């Protein structure tokens, strides 16, 4: 009986995931490949497909890199905050609980034609009246708006992972570097960064996988002016009711997510101990 | 030196403002109503701020009905995540059994798959089962997203509680289940509350599956997404604000567990 207990305890979750994770996963892949490569051909021939691919990768490369840098700076700054560290940390981690839809609406309030940004710009004399930044004619500023909204929302999760990782590094390591006369930059480059590598890897994997799933922030800021892979999957399923092409998009998102995970695992692998 | 300290303090303050000011601005947009949404140039305070605009805010019917549906879905998701996740977490913490590592890995790997790949075929399956367009149906798929967290975090919670306490309870004649309920569970309760809150936020914020699996009984996220292009701006801002408030509160409640959790998730 005692030998069976752990299996009885994990059985419900296994059965649940089997029915609601594994079965749908297989079904989506089967649905995408129904009729050979036909769904993929229709996906590829769609007007938005090339834009969706380029936009998705552009957003992810820009956002994930900037987020890593910003979160590193914030995490290192936090070590030197002496008064109100808990409060600062709480404020900085608030966006952790904000959905991408809500983040999109927040930045819509700021960046819309009659929004706060334009009010400030008009006061500074840069523009004379309400101006549009989020249309099909202004792809560069629309991209910038989405990058800012994503930076605002999802840097917090990278920050939390890095702060947790920094706390695992023994203080003695840094002190030893000081004893040997290392500059702060050398200390960061030779001691902190290498020891933080596992946390950076986790953060990159998690952020990239989640960024491939981002679509509500794009829809709330730009509508269909800025197609990404997930918003296309959503449109084919929801508006066009064409489940085959939607499934093909879902399979593409899955493939790039898994490829990105494998990429980071190889790129940042820790030497075997 | 004081100059550098001042510069540092300014940097910290700017980053705090970067987080907080946008939240204030959407709050102003939410309670400012139509007048605020159309105002130009935009004032820092709502122009006609009064009880009237507040009651208008609470009268935006779609937002509140769907917020209620969101709460229902999220509570079901919490319930399922705990019912399925706590036993599994306990098994991982207390038993060394063949397959434990494989199970842990399988749970972790589920998170690398996009929710789209799960939600799409469930549309058809749920229609057949009568789960389509119901809070129960949406909460089931949200549980798939929250379960990995519930299992891994609760396993580390249970692992942190000394096994000797349980053994002592057995010596005094408690059964295994009774020892768990009377000794382990009370000690793990704060951590379990944090797990529950995380499951709630995961469900509350989820957009894709909720949109694809509902028509009339939409959650707040699904409702807002469906009216994006047609509803006036102040309704969208109100919805966005209502969406953010619980998240901010919850992050405050679990702030102590945040880092322990991510420390765990990193390994």
Overall tally of domains of chain B: 2
As a whole number of angstroms, the C-alpha radius of gyration of chain A is: 23 Å
The first-level CATH class name of the largest domain in chain B = Mainly Alpha
Query: Which class best fits the helix and strand makeup of chain B?
Result: mainly alpha
Extended strand count of chain B: 0
Query: What is the succession of H and E elements of chain B?
Result: HHHHHHHHHHHH
The top-level CATH class of chain A is: Mainly Alpha
> How does the major sheet of chain A shape up?
none
The low-confidence parts of chain B are none
Q: Give the overall pLDDT of chain B as a whole number.
A: 86
Question: How does the overall form of chain B come out from the CA principal axes?
Answer: globular
Poorly predicted tracts of residues of chain A? none
From the coordinates shown, what is the CATH architecture of chain A?
A: Orthogonal Bundle
**Beta-sheet strand percentage of chain B?**
under 5%
In CATH, the architecture of the largest domain in chain B is Orthogonal Bundle
SSE string of chain A: HHHHHHHHHHHH
CATH topology of chain A: MetI-like fold
Structural topology:
The complex is a heterodimer of chains A (273) and B (267).
Chain A: H1 5-32, H2 38-45, H3 49-78, H4 85-93, H5 100-111, H6 116-123, H7 139-167, H8 171-179, H9 184-212, H10 216-222, H11 229-238, H12 243-267
Helix pairs in contact in A: 1-12, 2-12, 3-7, 3-9, 5-7, 5-10, 7-9, 7-10, 8-9, 9-12, 11-12
Chain B: H1 2-38, H2 51-58, H3 61-94, H4 100-109, H5 115-129, H6 135-159, H7 163-171, H8 176-205, H9 208-212, H10 220-226, H11 233-253, H12 255-265
Please describe what this structure looks like:
- The complex is a heterodimer of chains A (273) and B (267).
- With 273 residues, chain A is mostly helical.
- Chain A has twelve helices and no strands.
- Chain A has helices at 5-32, 38-45, 49-78, 85-93, 100-111, 116-123, 139-167, 171-179, 184-212, 216-222, 229-238, 243-267.
- Chain A starts with a helix and ends in a 6-residue tail after the last helix.
- The radius of gyration of chain B is 23 Å and the shape is globular.
- Chain B is mostly helical and 267 residues long.
- Chain B has two domains: 1-59; 60-265, MetI-like (MetI-like fold, Orthogonal Bundle), CATH 1.10.3720.10.
- In chain B, helix 6 (135-159) crosses helix 8 (176-205).
- Chain B is 79% helix and 0% strand.
- At the A-B interface, helix 1, helix 4, helix 5, helix 6 and helix 7 of A face helix 1, helix 3, helix 4, helix 5 and helix 6 of B.
